[in-house]
Amino acid sequence: MTTITSLWHTLFRLEKQLLAPFDPKQHYPRLISDYTASCCRVASQLQQDDNLLLQEWCLRQGLFNLARAAMFHKTQLSVYQCCLDQLYRPMLALNQLYTAQRNGQKQQLALQASLNQIFYCQE
What we know:
Helix content is 80%, strand content 0%. The protein is mostly helical. Helix 3 runs antiparallel to helix 5 and helix 5 (88-99) runs antiparallel to helix 6. The chain starts with a helix and ends with a helix.
C-alpha cells in the first residue's frame, strides 16, 4: 500500500509542476518525461491490482494534462514540443486498454474527439 501511495504522491507533485506557470529554472524535458513515466507506473500498478476503471482514469488524466500543458506553454516552443512528443505514452497504453474491451473502438474515437477539442479550441 505504501508503494502505490508514494506513486500517487509523486504523480500529483509532478502534475502540479507541469501545470504551473512557466519557470525558466525548470528543466521541462525531464519533468515531462518523469510525469509520463509516473503516470504509466501508476497505471501499471492499477492494472496489476485489477482496477481497470482507475487505470483508465489515470491514463486519460495523464494524456489530457500533457495536452493541456502543451497548450498552456504554447509560447515556449521547447516545452510545447516535449509535451507533444510524450503524448504517445499514455495514448498507446489507452489504446491497448481499449482494444481489450468490447466497445473499445467507440472509446478510442471519443478520446480522439476530446483531444481535438483541446488542441483546436484553444488556438
